Amino acid sequence: MRLRQRLPLSLVFSLIALGYMTAAVALAWGLARWVASPLIAAVLAVLVLAPLLVYHVRRAFAPMRSLFRALTGTVGSYRDGDYGFSLSWAGGGELGDLVASHNALGDALREQRLALVQRELLLDTIVQNTPVATVLVDPARRIVLANLAARKLLGEGRRLEGQDFGALLGAAPPAMRDAFERGGDGMFSIGDEDDEDIYHLSRRRFRLNGREHELVLLRQLTAELRRQEVHTWKKVIRVISHELNNSLAPIASLAHSGAELLRRGQPERVPAALATIEERARHLEGFIRGYARFAKLPAPRTEPVDWPRFVAQLRDQVVFVVDGPVPVGSVRVDAAQFEQALLNLIKNAHESGSPAGEVQVAIRRLPEDWRIDVLDRGHGMNEAVLSNALLPFYSTKRNGTGLGLALAREIAEAHGGRIALLNRDGGGLCVSLTVPA
């Protein structure tokens, strides 16, 4: 919109005032000849010139009034989200500065609106094309948004917006319904063993426009888990092959050497070869037994286990120092599995390079759990080892199987607990095993 003001307002007002003062004086002087009173002549002059004064003042203010109307209209358009115009003011001064600032505001709002629209388009494209089924549910359990993956999974490709989410779940596979009924996040499988799809369910609540909504994410993990399964099997085969070769190669070599010694008539050296063969065979037996124990870990059969008696049995098998008093009372666990988990952790502490007297076990009662800390003053772990230490078959030891911590983790989680590793100040490691009280 283009507005003009040819002369500065101060100059216009000065000229109008001067002109009307002159005209008023002249008109009053002329009327004084016909009217007896000079006051009446002045009043008549003012009454005659007043309409003309109002007219010229309005003409002088017209550009400014047009500018204010234009500003009012643009502000209303900004409120409605329309930023596609600007003002043009031919004059300068403070009004020119006001118009320039107003146009700069419009340009900034227009750029921000364009950037927002582009981000919304990008976000919508990402949400619609992500392989994760995404559903937004309002407080009335109506679907507000469902992307393409959600339509394919829950609606056979049809639009889901506006439908009742509960009714939609009623027609879903039983495993999916069970996962939602359990609440929170979880995993479930759809199909049979020959054609099974595995999904991860994630649910988050948040407030949108002052109302609580729920965001449901269903991510298919089948392909990813299959890749992880193949990767794990390859790693298992590599570890087993390496361990078998490390044991069978010296056994074969020593057996050949023993036969050669007997042929040469040197039987006195045979027992040493046989002892080495026995040591490698027993190591291989323990290695295979560890893998079998990890693969065939049964569900825990829990029963109350008295703490003082349990700690005494542990100390009969491995050396450690009890940090603090042994709690009075019991914990409900599978005694054999729980003992195996703690033996693995304590043996790892001894193998960490820690002095035997610095290997400690601390048992603490938390509000809802028992926490058992196994502490040492060994070399600790760097970040890379900490992030992988609980994975099966991961080991930094030359002859390690990578199953000790992994087995302890499996036992803890089977009991509804967890395990965590943390480097200690001053060196060493703290392994915390937590189980429900």
UniProtKB/TrEMBL annotation:
<dbReference type="Pfam" id="PF02518">
    <property type="entry name" value="HATPase_c"/>
</dbReference>
<dbReference type="InterPro" id="IPR036097">
    <property type="entry name" value="HisK_dim/P_sf"/>
</dbReference>
<protein>
    <recommendedName>
        <fullName>histidine kinase</fullName>
        <ecNumber>2.7.13.3</ecNumber>
    </recommendedName>
</protein>
<keyword id="KW-0472">Membrane</keyword>
<dbReference type="InterPro" id="IPR035965">
    <property type="entry name" value="PAS-like_dom_sf"/>
</dbReference>
<feature type="transmembrane region" description="Helical">
    <location>
        <begin position="38"/>
        <end position="57"/>
    </location>
</feature>
<dbReference type="InterPro" id="IPR004358">
    <property type="entry name" value="Sig_transdc_His_kin-like_C"/>
</dbReference>
<feature type="domain" description="Histidine kinase">
    <location>
        <begin position="239"/>
        <end position="437"/>
    </location>
</feature>
<keyword id="KW-0418">Kinase</keyword>
<dbReference type="InterPro" id="IPR003594">
    <property type="entry name" value="HATPase_dom"/>
</dbReference>
<keyword id="KW-0812">Transmembrane</keyword>
<dbReference type="GO" id="GO:0000155">
    <property type="term" value="F:phosphorelay sensor kinase activity"/>
</dbReference>
<dbReference type="InterPro" id="IPR000014">
    <property type="entry name" value="PAS"/>
</dbReference>
<dbReference type="Pfam" id="PF13188">
    <property type="entry name" value="PAS_8"/>
</dbReference>
<dbReference type="InterPro" id="IPR036890">
    <property type="entry name" value="HATPase_C_sf"/>
</dbReference>
<keyword id="KW-0808">Transferase</keyword>
<keyword id="KW-1133">Transmembrane helix</keyword>
<dbReference type="InterPro" id="IPR005467">
    <property type="entry name" value="His_kinase_dom"/>
</dbReference>
